[in-house]
Amino acid sequence: MRESLLVPMRRRVFLSAAALTVAPAGLVRAAERRLFVAQMVPEDVTTPVESKARGEAKLTLELATLKLRWDITWRDLSSPPVGISLNGPGQLFTNALPLVDLAPRGIRMPLQGEAVIDEALVQYMITTWAYVNLKTQRYPNGEIRGQIQGTAVE
Question: Per residue in 15-43, pLDDT tens?
Answer without folding.
Answer: 333 334 333 444 344 468 999 999 999 99
